[in-house]
């Protein structure tokens, strides 16, 4: 087997197995790993929203960041950088979270839900694929958020310090931190297991660059299936892990799935929004988390947008629940799609205008030379 192919399959396999094991040891069913949900829980734990059932300082997130940070340091790839359209990244991250919370899960949880028999995830996958296809059309027309520039070392340490702070607050549990007493936020694997899993996954993802959006995007855009093989590895090993470790909760069907709803239209549209925004951002929530650990300030801004989106979703009734999608949530998804499309169109218009100006300038220079 090709070495690179073996690494990407192994990485996917480890993520899938930990997705099942974390459920076995306490994480919510079908939510062994969910980056959007975990940032949402952290936002709740910090009091940014007051939805009492989803408040917990998830150590997996700290593990992802610190694992990527440590590996990047060892490999000489820790490079503080940023400044690439921060406001647009914040907005896109904000609406990516809205789409994920209407679907009830990030793209990674979408795969893990399917691996535990939740067929509602199929609608999400179709929507995610559609959204990525739309994003690709913008890429083909020159969409870019611009080049990042070198930042100070202090700026690069922002997210690793945040990750350590979250761990310290989790252990110290001061009174100003909120912890759910019921619901998904109250369900958690032991801290050492969750942190260890996060550290390993973060380190592996820093090396392999596996990304859910990248897997679908590259398969459709350039017929490169390298990352897609890793995503298949996540599904296959999570499926095996669930059958072995979580057979009592393994259930194939649309109805009665944990922390899910079967409103197919909004599952589709929620993940379509997630797909468009992930492509425009250059990576899914998991990939953004790994990049932030490497010192990428643009990814850090995206994560701040994700957390703001989570807080807004729960403060204003946008997030879905097993009962279905709220009217506010439906409106927010439509607004998010419109905003994402507007950003894409405005950026490619600006890129085209800049190219035309450069071309005109060059032509003028030639004429002067003659």
What's the layout of helices and strands?
Blueprint lengths: L2 H22 L10 H11 L13 H16 L6 E2 L3 H18 L3 H9 L4 H21 L8 E2 L2 H4 L1 H15 L18 H18 L3 H10 L4 H20 L18 H18 L3 H9 L3 H19 L11 H43 L1
Q: Which structural class matches the secondary elements?
A: mainly alpha
- Beta content: under 5%
Poorly predicted regions are none
Percentage of residues in helical conformation: 55-70%
Measured on Cα atoms, how large is the radius of gyration?
20 Å
Would you count the extended β strands for me? 2
For the record, give the distance between the C-alpha atoms at the N and C termini, rounded to a whole number: 59 Å
Main sheet summary: 2 strands, antiparallel
Determine the mean pLDDT: 96
Number of domains: 1
**Adjacency order of strands in the biggest sheet:** 1-2
Shape: globular
> Helix segment count?
15
What is the element string, with H for helices and E for strands? HHHEHHHEHHHHHHHHH
Description:
With 370 residues, the chain is mostly helical. The chain has one domain (3-369). Helices cover 68% and strands 1% of the residues. The chain contains 15 helices and two strands. Helix 2 (35-45) packs across helix 14, helix 3 (59-74) crosses helix 13 and helix 4 (86-103) crosses helix 14 (297-315). The longest helix has 43 residues, at 327-369. It starts with a helix and ends with a helix. The mean pLDDT is 96. It holds the Pfam family Sulf_transp. The chain crosses the membrane at residues 87-112, 118-136, 157-179, 185-205, 225-245, 265-286, 298-319, 331-352. Keywords: Membrane, Transmembrane, Transmembrane helix.
């Amino acid at each position: 087997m090709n070495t690179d192919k073996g690494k990407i399959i192994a990485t996917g396999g480890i993520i899938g197995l930990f997705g099942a094991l974390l459920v076995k040891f306490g994480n919510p069913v079908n939510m062994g790993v969910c980056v959007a949900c975990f940032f949402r829980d952290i936002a709740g734990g910090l009091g940014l929203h007051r939805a009492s059932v989803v408040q917990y300082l998830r150590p997996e997130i700290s593990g992802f960041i610190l694992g990527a940070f440590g590996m990047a340091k060892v490999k000489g790839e820790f490079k503080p950088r940023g400044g690439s359209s921060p406001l647009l990244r914040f907005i896109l991250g904000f609406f990516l979270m809205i789409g994920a919370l209407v679907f009830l899960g990030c793209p990674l949880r979408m795969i893990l839900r399917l691996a535990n028999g939740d067929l509602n995830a199929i609608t999400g996958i179709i929507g995610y694929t559609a959204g990525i296809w739309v994003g690709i059309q913008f890429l083909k027309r020159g969409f870019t958020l611009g080049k990042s520039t070198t930042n100070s070392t202090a700026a690069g340490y922002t997210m690793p310090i945040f990750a350590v702070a979250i761990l310290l607050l989790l252990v110290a549990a001061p009174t100003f931190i909120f912890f759910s007493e019921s619901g998904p936020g109250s369900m958690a694997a032991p801290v050492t297991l969750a942190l260890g899993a996060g550290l390993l996954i973060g380190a592996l993802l820093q090396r392999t660059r596996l990304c859910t959006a990248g897997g679908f995007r590259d398969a459709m855009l350039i017929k490169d299936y390298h990352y897609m093989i890793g995503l298949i590895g996540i599904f296959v090993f999570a499926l095996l892990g669930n059958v072995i470790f979580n057979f009592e909760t393994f259930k194939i069907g649309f109805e009665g799935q944990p922390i899910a709803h079967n409103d197919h239209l909004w599952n589709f549209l929620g993940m379509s929004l997630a797909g468009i925004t992930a492509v425009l951002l250059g990576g899914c929530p998991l990939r953004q988390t790994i990049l932030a650990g490497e010192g990428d300030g643009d990814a850090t801004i995206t994560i701040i947008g994700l957390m703001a989106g989570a807080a807004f979703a729960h403060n204003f009734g946008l997030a879905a629940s097993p009962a279905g999608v709220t009217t506010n949530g439906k409106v927010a998804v439509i607004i998010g799609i419109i905003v994402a499309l507007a950003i894409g169109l405005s950026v490619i218009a600006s890129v085209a205008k800049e190219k035309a100006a450069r071309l005109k300038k060059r032509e003028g220079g030639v004429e002067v030379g003659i």
